[in-house]
Request: fold
Amino acid sequence: MAVIGNRGPIAQYWATAADPGSIVMPHNFGERMKMPLSRFLVIQSNMSFMEGQPNEEDPWAPIRPLIEGFNATRAEHILPGTFLTVDECMSAWKGSNRKHRHDGMPHVTKIQRKPEGVGAEFKSIACSQTGILLKLDIVEGTARQSSKQFHQQYGSGTSSVLRLSQEYFGSGRTVVADSAFASVKTLLALKKSGLFFMGMVKTAHREFPKSVLQQWADGNLDGAVPKRGSHLLLETEEDNESFYAIGWKDKKLKTILAEGHQILVSLS
Reply:
């Protein structure tokens, strides 16, 4: 999603070539957003908004029904596959910040590495096989995030994963996530909820043998530096359940946390 400041016919945003003599690059939304103009017009024709008074109790009230409706519709009509991917999405914002203007965005996130790195951030979960988004969770700012479900017990990363995946608790699906969410704490919390987990561990490595995997990658375990593409698998068991720590030798060591033998089968 994106908000563009200049005005003009909607069709101009789907143009694939610049106008003759123009130095302005075409927006090419069809390719960039993966949505044809015809579909956008159908969606637009079924949406309406009205100006309302600012809601001090919920600054996100103008769009919350839209997000909740999206989540409810996906839960009702989409049956995802075995693997679920947790990540974040950005909705680009070119307007003002509520820190500076009363009518600005309630909370603006800035992520430099993103193609559109300034805007509203959503934590998201998708079906890994089809790529269909299943649920969005607005990142509302530190104070409001800390009052959300599961946050007090588990903290930011794990609570986000639990909120996004709770419609699938007990289904035996596997949640896959990057280092923003991956930790032993996340794995154990999902295990209690009837889900498996796999993710790349970086900074949240409490109770994870990252130092052992690093020693292996540096050649300090058996005296030989492993070749690129080599891996080391560490296994532990608790209550007849297997948990794995995987080191993958690359230009930079990759350290992966996983639970359940079916994950290893899928990787092979």
Observations:
- The longest helix spans residues 64-77.
- The chain has a mean pLDDT of 88.
